[in-house]
Write a structure and sequence with these properties.
This protein is α/β, with parallel strands linked by helices. The chain is 49% helix and 15% strand. The chain is globular, with a radius of gyration of 19 Å.
Length: 308
């Protein structure tokens, strides 16, 4: 199986601001980047947020038996403001408080309201319209996409090998987050105006574990760490950018699953996002073994420069 990397347009950075961004942010119930930006970026509150989400559908592939996919959306604070505004306007139009892709597809959770009000057939039509409109909001925004898919059969094999067991945990959750964060930081570091990025991910029972590894991970990658700002977990019900990342993660996962089943399959699902994709990676056993080898060499103290 071949590792695939697709690189799209470069990230655009505007009005660089530097400052002391806290590493781990404990937050009150905040529902907008507008409220949170001053906490991490200081006076003026302008900077870049990368929002991470892994789509997990409890009704299908609940154990992530095919691929584990994580997607990240990155944009300037001001651009996120506009996405939030349009996103909420669209949901409010049909009386919804928040969006989750799995609920939209299965008419469960928040989308059960549509069934109760309009009946199953009309609710299905409405949910499809809502998803199409939300995708259009993202397509017409400056938001850009990073996505990684870990082939689970390969991950289980490599993490069970003597060398792999030293580096990879049983659960790919931590690996995928750290891999994508590194790629975002590397891309930002290579841009014309490198900046520290605030990373936000969905609240999860594993969130504390990811946060506890943050400082150590940055020490292992000092150059990339220059662009790694804060890391914080938010509730997706109250935070529209996480809902957006969830939607992209679902689309990306479906494309990766099709590619895993048929390596020659067309990735039509992602074609519509091609102009927004900065980094898109399909990681098989060969890729994972290379990561393991590199990590072990670093742990032994070998001086391995970060190739940018």
């Amino acid at each position: 199986m071949r590792t695939i990397h697709i690189f799209g347009t470069g990230i655009r950075w505007s009005q660089p601001q530097r400052g002391n961004i806290p590493e781990i942010v404990s937050r009150p119930r905040i529902t907008s980047i507008r409220d949170f930006a001053p906490v991490v970026f200081g006076h003026g509150g302008n900077g870049h947020f990368c929002v991470l989400a892994c789509y997990i559908d409890d009704s299908a592939d609940a154990k992530q038996q095919i691929v584990f996919n994580l997607s990240g959306l990155i944009a300037d604070t001001l651009d996120w403001f506009e996405v939030e505004r349009k996103w909420m306007q669209r949901l409010e139009r049909d009386g919804l408080d928040y969006f989750r892709t799995v609920d939209c597809l299965n008419l469960t959770g928040e989308f059960r309201k549509l069934v109760d009000r309009h009946g199953l057939g009309t609710a299905r039509t409405m949910s499809e319209s809502i998803m199409a409109d939300l995708k259009a909001i993202l397509k017409n925004s400056p938001v850009q996409i990073f996505s990684v898919a870990v082939v689970m059969d390969d991950y289980r094999i490599v993490s069970g090998e003597p060398q792999g067991a030293r580096v990879l945990l049983h659960d790919p959750y931590y690996y995928a987050h750290e891999e994508l964060i590194y790629r975002v930081a590397k891309t930002v570091g290579q841009s014309a105006n490198p900046e520290r990025v605030a990373f936000v991910f969905d609240e999860h029972k594993k969130a504390a574990g990811l946060e506890s590894r943050w400082s150590e991970y940055k020490e292992l990658h000092p150059r990339a760490a220059e662009c790694m700002g804060s890391l914080s977990a938010w509730d997706d019900k109250y935070f529209q950018p996480l809902q957006a990342a969830d939607l992209i993660s679902h689309t990306s996962r479906k494309a990766f699953e099709r590619r895993t089943a048929n390596p020659s399959a067309e990735l039509a699902e992602m074609e519509q996002w091609r102009e927004k994709i900065v980094w898109w990676s399909y990681q098989d056993a060969d890729y994972l073994r290379a990561i393991v080898s590199d990590s072990i060499r670093r742990a032994k103290g070998e001086d391995l420069p970060e190739q940018w």
